[in-house]
Specification:
It is a single chain. With 100 residues, the chain is α+β, with helices and mostly antiparallel strands. It has a single domain (2-95), classed as 2-Layer Sandwich (Alpha-Beta Plaits). It contains 3 helices and 4 strands, in the order βαββααβ. The protein has helices at 15-32, 63-71, 73-85, and strands at 2-10, 38-43, 54-60, 86-95. It has a 4-stranded antiparallel beta sheet with strand order 2-3-1-4. The longest helix has 18 residues, at 15-32.
């Protein structure tokens, strides 16, 4: 299984509204993109200096499935919104080994 995690730091302007809108749009992707197995969207509550504002944790069957997600038109629409309301993002992609 492939795990794709992204963290976002949002601009202060309209931050609460933008966090809600991005969260809604991201959560909707699981029904719109066949290669996306799961998505979990989390909004930070700690507001510590080190914290990012939002993280997403997504899973895919393969690297190819992650690639399909990356270029899917519905994903690209959300990416466009995210780029307009965030200051920075960080990503990690890894292969989750079967725990059995």
């Amino acid at each position: 299984m492939i795990v794709h995690i992204v963290m976002f730091r949002f601009k202060e302007e309209n931050k609460d509204v933008n966090l809600k809108e991005v969260s809604l749009r991201l959560n909707a992707l699981v029904k719109l993109i066949p290669s996306l197995n799961s998505i979990e969207v989390g909004v930070d509550f700690s507001q510590s200096e080190r914290a990012f504002d939002m993280s997403i944790h997504t899973t895919f069957d393969s690297k190819e499935a992650l690639g399909e997600y990356a270029v899917h038109p519905e994903h690209l629409k959300v990416v466009e919104l995210i780029k307009s309301v965030t200051l920075e993002s960080k990503v990690v992609d890894y292969i989750k080994e079967d725990s059995n």
